[in-house]
Amino acid sequence: MQKKIFEATRIGNLELKNRLWRSATWLNQADEKGHLTSELITRYEELAKGGVGSIITGYAHVLEQEQPNAGMLGIYSDDFIEEYRPFVKRIHELGAKLIMQVCYGGSSTKFQTKGRLIWGPSAVQNPGYRVTPTRMKIADIKTVIDAYAQSARRVKEAGFDGVQIHAAHAYLYSQFLSPYFNRRTDAYGGSIENRARIIFETLEAVRQEVGPDYPVLIKMHSTDDWDANGLTPIESLWVAKELEKRGITAIEFSGGNRDFKYPLKKPIRAKILKREKQAYFFEATKQIAAELTVPVISVGGHRNFEFMEHILNDSNISYVSLSRTLFSEPDLPNKWMENPDYDPRCTSCSKCWSPEGNICILDRKKSVVHK
Question: DSSP assignment of 162-216, as one string?
Fold first, then answer.
């Protein structure tokens, strides 16, 4: 049976109104402690009104002292639970599901790097950010695992529909998976079984806090596009199969790297108006999805409605997620519902990012952002 973007489906106990997801994206509009602002709430309300079935929030930091970017959400304290409840309720009222992405950033950061402790699997300089982290001790690893687990508990108690573990884009858990960053020789380094250990232990700890049925997703790489330095599709498939056995609810596959030596292999790529440049992680994700039964979400350069439906029906991929196109037009799903041939306003210029808030450049002059 042909899969359609605008059809209802189910992931675990979640009923989804369509197959479109808003992929987690840092908006740079929370306050300095990670609390909600009126501007940030408005952005999510616009997304929910715009017709996307499921929204994954921008990443939220799980430890107060570890913040990879300014203006990102926080989930490091129980104080956030009551704050998020009305926010989640409002998004539900507008017809969308809401999942929170949780993250420890590590050395992929330019934010206040002096004078704070930044952990990594090994003391290897980050090629994109030039930050060298402190090698984690076993006790540090346990601290981060517990931080993820407690954050997931808070996410559930706040009423979110699920939690997503961020293990992509050269943040800490992505670094553990990568042989470039992970030079360890103990139980957390070396073989892919060891490099993935921190993720498996985190999933187990999260499940202990939220139970067996609460949706727990992960975002990870299909490939780093980094030759022998990175995570290969074969290794990604092995990790995904293990996560499937261990109770993951769904997997969103991204990819790429932030090494300046590979400018055309970034996780976010510009100038992708031509169809052959879109869906740039599709082939690797397709190969992995073919071996899985857990639902797979494809991300990376999706902007053509017909092509997205082709992706769904030419693979075992169940969902597609978008980001920059929804920066530019949060009501893009509604527009596609009326006219599948609608061409998004977004030009994939990747100029969304600004210290004043990550907003489409076409709208930035219209917006006044207060933090």
Answer: EEEEEE-TTSHHHHHH-TTT----STTSSSHHHHTHHHHHHHHHHHHHH-SSS-E
Helix axes 79-93, 38-49, angle to 10 degrees: 30
Q: Looking at the 3D structure of the chain, how many domains does it have?
A: 1
Whether 272 maps to a domain, the answer reads yes
Residue 194's domain comprises 9-364
The answer to whether the beta carbons of residues 52 and 19 sit under 8 Å apart is no
- The per-residue pLDDT for range 178-217, each reduced to its tens digit, is 999 999 999 999 999 999 999 999 999 999 999 999 999 9
Contacts of 32 (CB under 8 A, 6+ apart): 70, 71, 371
Mean pLDDT on 342-353: 89
- Ramachandran category for residue 141: left, alpha or beta (phi over 0 → left; psi -120 to 50 → alpha): alpha
Tokens (6 digits) for 270 = 């510009």
Counted residue by residue, the chain has a size of 371
Q: Summarize pLDDT for 78-112 with one digit per residue, the tens.
A: 999 999 999 999 999 999 999 999 999 999 999 99
Contact by Cβ (8 Å): 371, 32? yes
Question: Do residues 348 and 270 make contact, with C-beta atoms less than 8 angstroms apart?
Answer: yes
> Residue 106 class from Cβ within 10 Å (0-12 exposed, 13-18 middle, 19+ buried)?
buried
**Residue 155: count of CB within 10 angstroms of its CB:** 31
In a domain, 371, yes or no: no
Residue type, 323: S
Q: 46-83: buried (b, 16+ CB within 10 Å) or exposed (e) per residue?
A: ebbebbbbbbbbbbbbbbeebbbbbbbbbbbeeebbee
Side chain identity at residue 77, one-letter code? S
CATH code for position 221: 3.20.20.70
Residue 1 inside a domain? The answer is no
Residue 43 is encoded by which pair of tokens? 């952005």
Residue 3 lies in a domain: no
What secondary structure does DSSP assign to 58-91, as a single string? Answer: SPEESBTTB-SSTT-EE-SSTHHHHHHHHHHHHH
**Confidence at 369, pLDDT banded by 50, 70, 90:** very low
Closest by CA to 186, choosing from 137, 116, 248, is: 137
